[in-house]
Amino acid sequence: MREADRLGARFAVIFGEAELREGKCTVKDMSAKDRQWQASPSEVPGQLAERLRAAP
C-alpha cells in the first residue's frame, strides 16, 4: 500500500494468501482508503475501466 501511495496510484490490486485461496483479489480505491471490494481477477480490468470512466 505504501508503494501505491508513493506512486500516486488510483487503485491497488492485492493478491494475498486469503485472496489466492478464494480465487479472488482485493481492489482498493486509493482515493478513499476505506473503499475496497473483492472480485475475480478476470473481472478487475472491466471494473477498473468503468470506475475510471466515471471519475471526474
Tally the helices: what do you get? Answer: 3
N/C terminus separation: 23 Å
Q: What's the shape? A: globular
Helix content estimate: 40-55%
Q: What is the number of domains?
A: 1
CATH topology: Rossmann fold
- Residue runs with pLDDT of under 50 for 5 or more positions: none
Examine the secondary-structure arrangement and name the CATH architecture. 3-Layer(aba) Sandwich
Secondary-structure element order, N to C: HEHEEH
Instruction: Give the rounded overall mean pLDDT.
Output: 92
CATH classification class = Alpha Beta
**How large is the radius of gyration?**
11 Å
Oligomer: single chain
Beta-strand share of residues:
15-25%
Structural class by helix and strand composition: alpha+beta
Number of strands: 3
| Largest pleated sheet | 3 strands, antiparallel
Strand order of the largest sheet: 1-2-3
Determine the CATH superfamily: Anticodon-binding domain
